[in-house]
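Hi L.,

You mentioned the student needs an example of a multi-chain input paired with its predicted structure. This one should do, with 225 residues in total across all chains.
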Amino acid sequence: SAVISQKPSRDICQRGTSLTIQCQVDSQVTMMFWYRQQPGQSLTLIATANQGSEATYESGFVIDKFPISRPNLTFSTLTVSNMSPEDSSIYLCSGATGVGFQQYFGPGTRLTVT
Amino acid sequence: GQQVMQIPQYQHVQEGEDFTTYCNSSTTLSNIQWYKQRPGGHPVFLIQLVKSGEVKKQKRLTFQFGEAKKNSSLHITATQTTDVGTYFCAGKNNAGNMLTFGGGTRLMVKP
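Structure written out for the whole complex:
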C-alpha cells in the first residue's frame, strides 16, 4: 500500500482568508486526487491533480476557489481561497496506484472557518 | 453522470449478527472498490472486484460483483465491535480514472 501524509491535520481560519494544504505521497503513486467530506457524508471529488499542468476540476469546483498544484510526482497542494463558513469540512488527499486505481487516503485536514 | 447508490444508510446490529450493504451504479463499471472509514479516520481500501460475478472473501467479509457489473454487496458474518465504521463502495467506469463513491453505510455494533 502507498503512504500518504497530509498537513496540517486541522486548522481554524477566519472568513476571507486562505489555507494551503500539503500532501506528500510515496513513489508508488501515479495519480493524486483531492476530496471534500462533510461530517457524516460521503466523499466528493474536487479535482485530479496533474503533474506539471492544471488540475482537472469536477463540476461545482473552480480553480479560482481551489487552486491546486502538483509540481512533481509525489507532492501536491490544495488551497482553499477566500474562505467562508460553508468551506468548513474535511479535505482529503489520495493517491492511486495500479491498473485498477485503488486509492490510498491521507489522514485528512479538518478545516473550520469562523 | 455516473451515480452510485448505497443502502442502507445506517445499520445497527447486535454483536454476532450478520450485516450486508448494497451498492448500485447507474452505469456499467470496469471495477468496484470497497473502503472502510472508522470514526474519526480516513477511508481505507479493502478490496477491488473486476470480473462479472466475482466473489472475494477476507476472513468474515464477503464481497460480490454483479453479473451485469452494475451492483455489488459486502456481507459481514458475525459482526464484531471492531467492524464499526462506515463502508463505502466506489465505482470506476471505463472512461477516466476517477472513482464515484456511494453514500456509505454506517455500521454500529452493540456489544
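You could point out the following to them. Chain A touches chain B at residues 1, 31, 33, 40-43, 45, 48, 58-59, 92, 96, 100-108 (CB under 8 Å). Chain A has a mean pLDDT of 93.

Best wishes,
N.
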